[in-house]
Amino acid sequence: MPDPQDNSSDADLVRLAQKGDMQAFEELVARHRDRVYARAYSMMRNEDEALDLSQDAWVKGWQRLGQFQGDSSFVTWMTRIVINLCLDQLRKLKRKRAESLEAMEEESGGVERQMPVISPNPTEGLERAELQERINRALGQLSEEHRTVLILHEFEEMEYKEIARHMKCSIGTVMSRLFYARRRMASLLAGLRRENSE
Amino acid sequence: MKHDLELKWQTWLDGELPAAEAEQMRRLAASDPEAASLLAELQNIKTALLQNETAVTVPEARSFYWSKIQRQIQRPASVRPSPGPAWAERLRRWLAPVAGLAALAAAIMVALNPSAPQALNQVSVMAEGFQTRTFRDDSAGINFVVFHQIPQPSAAFTGAAPARIRNDGSSFMTELE
User: Fold this and answer.
1) Which of A181, A183, A104 minimizes the C-alpha distance to A145?
2) B9, A174 in Cβ contact below 8 A?
3) Domain ranges of chain A
4) Average pLDDT, stretch B149-162?
5) Does the structure show a pLDDT above 50 at B175?
6) Who has the most CB within 10 Å: B151, B152, B159, B177?
7) pLDDT over 50 (residue A38)
8) For testing the chain B interface, which of A185, A188, A192 should be mutated: the one with the most B CBs within 10 Å?
9) CB contact under 8 A, A118 and B41
10) pLDDT, greater one: B151 or A164
11) Which comes out higher in pLDDT, residue B113 or A40?
12) Angle A20-A23-A28 from CA coordinates, rounded to 5°
C-alpha cells in the first residue's frame, strides 16, 4: 500500500517535520538523498566520506528545521548544509597537510598562467555521457580549491560573493581560483580528447 | 594580458559586472582578438559544465541509509556532554581555586605546627573538580604539595601545579614548578 506522504509536496513534508513528524522527514531524505550525497561526493571524491557527511547533513537539517523559512527550496537549503560540512572537513584535512607547492601555486595560477588558450573547443561533438565522464575525470584531477569553486559556481550557480562567504576567502581569490580552474579544465579536457583520438 | 584584465573578462562573462562596464567590455571584446580567444575558452568550459554533472546515487539502501540518520537524531540528550546550570558552573569555577588555596594553606599550617607528626606521608584533600596531595620528606625537611585537576568539561582551573614547600628550619619557601 503506498504511503500517503509519497504524494505530499516538499513544503507539506517540511511543515510536518517541523512539528516533529519523523516519517515526513524520512520521506524528504528519501527524495533528496541522492542530490545531497552527490554534492558531498563531488567535493570529497571519496565514497565513505561523502556518505558520512551527507548523513551528518541530514541530522543537522533535522536539528535546524525550525530555521528553514522557505526562502529557497528545501533541497537547495539541504545542499548548502552539506556544502558547508564538506568545506569544514576539507579545511580540517588541509590543516593537517604541510604547506605544499600546489597550495602556493593555487593563488598564482601555476602552469595555467603561461598556458596558451585551448582551441578548438575540447568538448565539441561529444555525446552527453562521454562529456560527463570526461568532465568528472578532469574535475578529479583539479586541486580541492579549484574543484570546489567550479562546483559552487557552475553546478550550484552561486555568485562570487556567496562562494567567498562559503569558502571564507575574498571575492578576488574566488575570481582568481575560478579563472585558473577553468583554464586547467580546458587543458585537461583537451588532453583527454588527444588521448582518445590516438 | 594582465591578470586583472583577464579577471575582468571573466567577470563580464559571468554577468557580474555593472551594466555600464559590461557594455564597455562588450565593445572591447569585438575589437580584441586575444580577449576574444580567451573568452571563447572560458565560455566553452562554462557551457560544458552546465547541466553536465555526472549523476551519482547513494550506494546504500534507503532503510540502511536512513537508520544511521535516525539513530543520531534519536540519540538521548543525556549522552551529549552538558555543562549544567550556569549558576553551578560559576560556583564551581569560583570554588576550584579557593579550594586549592585552602588546601595549600592547610599543608603549610601542618608543616609549621611543631606538634604535628613528623612522619607525614600523605594528606589528601578533595574538593569539587580539584584534588591536592601532600608528601613529606623528613630527611630533607621538604613538603611536596601536588595540585591535580579532576578532568571535567570546561573546568576553570586547567593546570596541575606541583608546589614544593621547603622547610629549612627557620623559614618556609613555596615553589611552584
Assistant:
1) A181
2) no
3) 1-97, 100-198
4) 44
5) no
6) B152
7) yes
8) A185
9) yes
10) A164
11) A40
12) 95
Closest-CA distance, A189 to chain B, in angstroms, reads 9
Interface residue of B7, B69, B72, B73 to substitute, partner A, most A CBs within 10 Å: B69
CA B123 to each of CA B17, B129, B141: distance values in angstroms, whole numbers, following the listed order: 75, 17, 16
B13 close to A (CB below 8 A): no
CATH of A100-198, one of 3.10.129.10, 1.10.287.3610, 3.40.50.300, 1.10.10.10: 1.10.10.10
For CA atoms A158, A159, A164, A165, give the dihedral sign. negative
Hey, what CATH topology would domain A1-97 get? Rna Polymerase Sigma Factor; Chain: A (1.10.1740)
- Report chain A's mean pLDDT, rounded to a whole number: 89
DSSP bridge pairs for B173: B166
Q: Is the pTM of this model over 0.90?
A: no
Determine the pLDDT at residue A136: 94
Contact B11 A175 (CB under 8 A): yes
**B-chain residue closest to A58, CA distance:** B69
Instruction: Give, in order, the Cα–Cα distances in Å from B173 to each of A28, A101, B120.
Output: 69, 55, 18
Tell me the pLDDT tens digit for each residue of B29-65: 889 999 999 999 999 999 999 889 999 999 999 999 9
User: B142-149 and B122-127 as β-strands: parallel, antiparallel, unpaired?
Assistant: unpaired
How far apart CA A145 and CA A179 sit, in angstroms, is: 12
Look up residue B52 and give its three cell numbers.
553536465
Q: How far apart are CA A178 and CA B7, in angstroms?
A: 9
**Residue pLDDT, tens place only, A131-149:** 999 999 999 999 999 999 9
- Full DSSP string of A25-61: HHHHHHHHHHHHHHHHHHHH--HHHHHHHHHHHHHHH
Task: Give the distance from residue A41's alpha carbon to the nearest chain B alpha carbon, in angstroms.
Answer: 8
